[in-house]
Amino acid sequence: MNADLKAAVKINSLAGKVRPFDLMMDLITRYGHWAFVIYGLLLWFTPGKAREDRRNACVSAFIGVCIASLISYAIGRVWKRERPFRESPQIWNFTGHRANASFPSNHTMNGCVVAMELLRHNTNGSKLMAVLAGILAFSRVFAGMHYPSDVLGGAAIAAIVHKAVHMPAVSALTGALAAFGSWLSDDLVRKVTGR
User: Fold this and answer.
1) Which residue among 20, 71, 99, 114 has the highest number of C-beta atoms inside a 10 angstrom radius?
2) pLDDT digit string (tens) for 25-35?
3) How far apart are CA 156 and CA 180, in angstroms?
4) Which pLDDT tens digit goes with each residue over 161-190?
């Protein structure tokens, strides 16, 4: 058994000991990514002085997630790494996750892309979202779905994508998409509310 699988077995062995903790980890690993979506919508629609910057952060994060997801898809087509619960009978897959490609951890990767973007823009709650990204990453190993290297690989891809999103050409696209999205959503809100 290699060191990566041993670490996955060790972390997963913590499951089943404290039922409330298991339930919390199960909820986070299954639905934690929705916190980022809800937070993004709150950032987008909350009025205030920094709204334009918050909207740029949302668009940058969205573009980053799209790029990272394409990279992950390409890796999965080339290398279909078996999930830890398929490699060791000692691992308890308590979420019933299907046995698709393990590397990278998409939840970790996308959570890190969003957290890095929010931290860069210093948005309210960005540190809390960074902590949530870390907890989400841990929950994926705890649930037996990923190796620690899947999580580290996801974070590394996120860091590379974060740098790419801030290249001049992509930044210009981000600004244009944020301006168009702002006009569209503000117009829709005006029509719905009549203001």
Assistant:
1) 114
2) 999 999 999 99
3) 31
4) 999 999 888 888 888 888 888 888 877 777
- Asked if residues 67 and 164 have their Cβ atoms less than 8 Å apart, the reply is yes
pTM of the predicted protein model: 0.86
Residue 78 Cα distances to 2, 72, 103, 122, 150, angstroms: 22, 10, 11, 37, 15
Tell me how far apart the alpha carbons of residues 180 and 118 are, in angstroms, rounded to a whole number: 20
Length of the chain: 195
% of the chain surpassing 90 pLDDT: 58
* Higher-scoring residue by pLDDT: 144, 95: 144
8 A C-beta contact, residue 61 and residue 107? no
Rounded CA gap, 140 and 29, in Å?
A: 6
Rounded distance between C-alpha atoms, residue 22 and residue 28, angstroms: 10
DSSP string, 48-84: STTHHHHHHHHHHHHHHHHHHHHHHHHHHHH--PPPH
Task: Kindly calculate the radius of gyration of the chain based on its CA atoms and give it in whole angstroms.
Answer: 19
Residue 136's identity, in one-letter code, is L
* Helix (H/G/I), strand (E/B), else coil: 119: helix
